[in-house]
């Protein structure tokens, strides 16, 4: 199976999960990541590995709490740091996809407050002015609904709120912020490429018409609501695909076929095809901005990649405009409330010595990246 010419092959990380040494974010006190992978200091070496694995793109995030540790105080040293990171990628001819908000915020910001729209868009504008020549694709917000629900409705992540009302305010503020950032980036540069990374689920109804109805409701709220609000403010859509939910009225069953990752998440490759097909209606270029699994022993990763890419390829053959694929993740990292236990990396990290070891499945993926085919 051949992929289109110029297809983008990469992997993804986010700042808090890999960099280490982040002290001013809302996660830093209750969920400290310590040194994490020390990617902040070892990025050159990590990019050597990325190149060795034939990847031509890298998705990562800027840590806002480094750049603006106190409200309105921008840190020049950190701005220079990310410039060097971006320059290093560019000098290797690697395409850059930069996320502005990947779950963490400076400790002083609250997304349930309307002022968040102002502060976030100001931060976005600052970094855009600094890096616009070095960034190929901007992701304004990573998984807004996952963030809003974990942090403001379920209370699992900072700031640990459990309020439907706050959840709705966060969603609204993130919609407003997404539109504002899109408009401002395009005012500054006509051909800026601005998108989102959206976690969409394949909701599959069981049998009855009740099941079908519930699945379409779930699809409407989880997959489409946010996109519908910002669809005129997007140059592309990024899909983060992890989940399949079989909907049996009124609740869902996830793990019927019992093929699961180390985190107990069901592996259902065909689902990526369905969610990509669903996204076709937006008439925008698509990227798979995340897809991967926790698999410490690397027993399932090769097949996982093969199967998911097969279904991505099928969608492309059937006319879905998919431009690239980013595996989650380049290396093992800090999996939020789950800590360091889940191992999502193409590259294994020894957290004691911080040594990297390329997993066998990464070489399998590297061959696909090199040959542009499955
Ligand atoms: C996604 C997140 C990413 C990572 C993967 C496993 O929801 O965007 O940071 O944690 O899940």
Walk me through what this model shows.
With 374 residues, this protein is an alpha/beta fold. The chain is built from eleven helices and 13 strands. The chain has helices spanning 15-18, 39-52, 64-67, 76-91, 115-131, 144-153, 164-188, 209-230, 270-279, 301-317, 360-371, and strands spanning 8-12, 57-61, 95-101, 137-142, 194-199, 202-205, 236-240, 244-248, 251-253, 286-290, 322-328, 347-349, 356-358. An eight-stranded parallel beta barrel has the order 1-2-3-4-5-7-10-11, surrounded by five helices. Strand 10, helix 10 (301-317) and strand 11 form a beta-alpha-beta unit. It is globular, with a radius of gyration of 19 Å. Bound molecules: beta-D-fucopyranose. Beta-D-fucopyranose binds next to loops. The site of beta-D-fucopyranose has 12 residues, from loops.
At the first level of CATH, what is the class? Alpha Beta
Tally of DSSP β-strands: 13
The CATH architecture designation is Alpha-Beta Barrel
Helix proportion range:
40-55%
**Oligomerization category of the chains in this entry:** single chain
Rg calculated over all Cα atoms: 19 Å
Question: Strands of the biggest beta sheet: in what spatial order?
Answer: 1-2-3-4-5-7-10-11
Count the helices. How many?
11
What is the overall silhouette?
globular
Mean pLDDT rating: 97
Distance between the termini: 5 Å
**What is the CATH third-level topology name?**
TIM Barrel
Whole-number tally of structural domains: 1
Q: Which superfamily, in CATH terms, is the homologous superfamily?
A: Glycosidases
Largest sheet: 8 strands, parallel, barrel
Written as H for each helix and E for each strand, in order along the chain, the element string is EHHEHHEHEHHEEHEEEHEHEEEH
Low-confidence stretches: none
């Amino acid at each position: 199976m051949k992929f289109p010419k110029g297809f983008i092959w990469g992997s993804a990380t986010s700042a808090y999960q890999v960099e280490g040494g982040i002290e001013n974010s809302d996660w830093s006190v209750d969920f400290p990541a310590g040194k994490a992978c020390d990617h902040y200091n070892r990025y050159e070496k990590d990019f050597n590995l990325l190149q060795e694995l034939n990847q031509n793109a890298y998705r990562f995030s800027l840590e806002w709490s480094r750049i603006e540790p106190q409200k309105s105080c921008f840190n020049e040293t950190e701005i220079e740091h990310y410039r060097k990171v971006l320059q290093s990628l560019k000098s290797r001819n690697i395409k850059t996809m930069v996320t502005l908000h990947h779950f963490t915020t400076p400790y002083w910001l609250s997304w349930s407050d309307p002022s968040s729209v102002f502060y976030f868009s100001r931060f976005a504008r600052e970094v855009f002015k600094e890096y616009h020549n070095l960034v190929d694709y901007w992701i304004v917000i990573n998984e807004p609904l996952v963030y809003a629900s974990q942090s403001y409705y379920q209370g699992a992540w900072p700031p640990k709120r459990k309020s439907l009302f706050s959840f709705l305010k966060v969603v609204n503020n993130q919609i407003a912020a997404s539109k504002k950032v899109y408009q401002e980036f395009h005012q500054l540069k006509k051909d800026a490429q601005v998108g989102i990374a959206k976690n969409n689920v394949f909701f599959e109804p069981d049998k009855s018409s009740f099941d079908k109805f519930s699945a379409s409701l779930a699809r409407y709220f989880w997959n489409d609501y946010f996109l519908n609000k910002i669809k005129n403010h997007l140059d592309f859509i990024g899909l983060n695909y992890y989940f399949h939910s079989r909907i049996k009225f009124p609740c869902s069953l996830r793990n019927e076929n019992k093929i699961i990752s180390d985190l107990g998440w069901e592996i259902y490759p065909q689902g990526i095809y369905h969610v990509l097909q669903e996204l076709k209606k937006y008439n925008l270029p698509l990227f798979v901005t995340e897809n991967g699994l926790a698999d410490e022993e690397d027993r399932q990763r090769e097949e996982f990649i093969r199967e998911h890419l097969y279904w991505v390829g099928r969608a492309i053959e059937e006319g879905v405009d998919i431009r690239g694929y980013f595996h989650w993740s380049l290396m093992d990292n800090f999996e939020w409330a789950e800590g360091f236990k889940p191992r999502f990396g193409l590259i294994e990290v020894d957290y004691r010595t911080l040594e990297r070891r390329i997993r066998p499945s990464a070489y399998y993926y590297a061959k696909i990246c090199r040959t542009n085919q499955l």
